[in-house]
TrEMBL record:
Span within the parent record: 379 to 631 of 746
Originating species: Caloramator proteoclasticus DSM 10124
Protein's recorded name: Stage 0 sporulation protein A homolog
Parts of the chain that traverse the membrane: none
UniProt entry tagged with the keyword Kinase: yes
Gene Ontology MF annotations: ATP binding; phosphorelay sensor kinase activity
């Protein structure tokens, strides 16, 4: 409980910080974009006009980034819905497919993805956020397997919960790394990572009254286990066989 309290305070502080920066940045961009309009209307020199356009494009890019930051830091209004967890896992695998097929091509080693999706029932949350959870975890697993390996995703029911296990045969983590992975900005990937993925995953799962655990062995692999309260078990039957197989193997050679 203490840990999750610290974690949610950190995320809140992070939101306030980024929100504050975004606000300041907007104040800077407003006069830049405003005066560019006046310059554009009053300068005839084509070369100078091209420069002004370049400044405007860059300032607009800046404004777009600010908007993204504000969206991230704003407390989001979320419509909760009953989500079919198996379907969301399949979608997340599809979303990350370009990444693992690409990694497979460059390393010439295969990443094999196996799905054992037996969970029945739904979880309450937003599908977009749940996809974010699995996309982040799967992407990390692929990053952890530069020489290829297995990714095994399971879902099943246990005592009123839906349990999802995501297991890779990657590089694994030391105890020190394992303790910090859910902290915002903690990354071992230098400029390739921003360290936000798992902190976002953690907040989403907590908000859904769920749990997330990780076990890992250096050079053996890592397993994430997520537990979410199951809802509407009676509704799931017809859904399960619709559109996808319960058990599916993706193999890239
Ligand atoms: P990022 O991926 O940008 O580094 P994350 O918050 O998603 O940020 O992950 C934080 C760190 O946790 C990673 O840099 C990595 O060291 C570690 N990690 C996460 N998933 C795995 C995994 N499946 N295997 C090994 N290490 C992992």
């Amino acid at each position: 409980i203490q840990d999750s309290l610290i974690q949610s305070r950190k995320m809140q502080a992070l939101g306030e910080l980024t929100g504050g920066i975004a606000h300041e940045f907007n104040n800077i961009l407003t006069p830049i974009l405003g005066y560019i309009q006046i310059l554009k209307n009053n300068i005839d020199d084509p070369i100078l006009n091209r420069y002004i356009e370049l400044i405007e494009e860059s300032a607009k890019d800046g404004a777009k980034i600010v908007k993204r930051i504000q969206e991230f830091s704003k407390p989001k209004h979320k419509e909760k819905e009953l989500c079919d967890i198996n379907r969301i896992i399949i979608q997340s695998v599809e979303i990350t497919k370009p990444k693992w097929t690409y990694e497979s091509q460059i390393s010439k080693k295969s990443i094999e993805v196996k799905l054992d999706l037996k969970a029945k029932g739904f979880v309450e949350g937003t599908a977009t956020e749940l996809r974010e959870v699995f996309v982040n975890i799967i992407s990390n697993a692929i990053d952890a397997m530069p020489n290829g390996g297995f990714l095994h995703i399971e879902s099943f029911n246990k005592k009123g919960n839906i349990v999802i296990k995501i297991k890779d045969t990657g590089v694994g983590m030391t105890e020190e790394v394992k303790e910090k992975i859910f902290e915002p900005f903690f990354t071992t990937k230098n400029e390739r990572g921003n360290g936000l993925g798992l902190s976002i995953v953690y907040s989403i799962i907590k908000e859904m009254s769920g749990h997330i655990d990780v076990s890992s062995q250096v050079n053996e692999g890592t397993e994430f286990e997520i537990k979410l309260p199951a809802k509407g078990a009676g509704l799931s039957k017809e859904y399960l066989n619709e559109g996808f197989e319960e058990k599916q193997i993706y193999k890239i050679l």
